[in-house]
Specification:
The chain is of the alpha/beta class. The protein has eight helices and nine strands. Strands 5-4-3-2-1-9-8-7-6 form a nine-stranded parallel beta sheet, with helices on one face. Helix 1 packs parallel to helix 8, helix 3 runs parallel beside helix 4 and helix 6 packs parallel to helix 7. The longest helix has 14 residues. The protein is globular, with a radius of gyration of 15 Å. It starts with 5 loop residues before the first strand and ends with a helix.
Length: about 200
């Protein structure tokens, strides 16, 4: 598959606004959307987002910590499962349900263990600590083509450096969306971020 360069992290999004925000992001060119599970009514938001833009973007959840969460994401129609940590049971269940698994890892040992457990991609978290130099070093030792996403503290002023270092993409939260922003504001943020990604 072709992995998108930006995963939009919609922390705090509500079911009533999620469709409009999703349309704004997809129309701007974002092709992966994550609803963190510590958002209000996240499974409702995921289901509504799938209905709104699921044909044009990968939709799923972040901050996924349990096997039960994976089942609820799958039942809501989500396709992405992102976590801040590596949990083998979560990865295994994600694979069993046919979803894409992106666990959070902070060391090469965690990264290789996650891939062996069936992870589809790695979330290098937090990116503030695992900067571009770490991405470059990991890229040299992990299997060629391993999808790697840098997440945490990514914004317009630093995202390009991660791409140059070899990141497949980045997860972006507050630099893209915060509760209360209009769909028009989110569209502007998304276009500005996409323009900064090195292709």
């Amino acid at each position: 598959m072709i992995w998108p360069p930006i995963i939009a992290i919609l922390r705090g999004v509500t079911p009533s606004e999620v469709a409009d925000i999703g349309h704004a992001l997809v129309n701007a060119g974002i092709r992966a959307l994550e609803v963190p599970l510590n958002s209000p009514s996240p499974f409702d938001s995921i289901a509504r987002l799938v209905d709104a833009v699921g044909g044009d973007a990968l939709v799923g959840a972040g901050t996924v910590l349990s096997v039960d969460d994976v089942d609820r994401i799958a039942d809501a129609g989500g396709r992405l499962v992102l976590s801040p940590n590596f949990n083998a049971d979560v990865v295994q269940r994600t694979c069993e349900r046919g979803l894409l698994s992106i666990p959070g890892v902070g060391t090469p040992t965690e990264g290789f263990t996650a891939l062996a457990a069936g992870a589809d991609a790695l979330k290098l978290f937090p990116a503030e600590l695992l900067g571009p130099a770490v991405v470059k070093a990991w890229r040299a030792v992990f299997p060629a083509g391993t999808p790697m996403y840098s997440v945490g503290g990514i914004a317009t002023d630093n995202m390009a450096a991660y791409g140059v270092a070899g990141a497949t993409g980045v997860g972006i939260g507050s630099a893209l969306y915060t509760p209360g922003l209009s769909a028009e504001q989110v569209t502007r943020h998304a276009r500005a971020l996409l323009e900064r990604w090195p292709v």
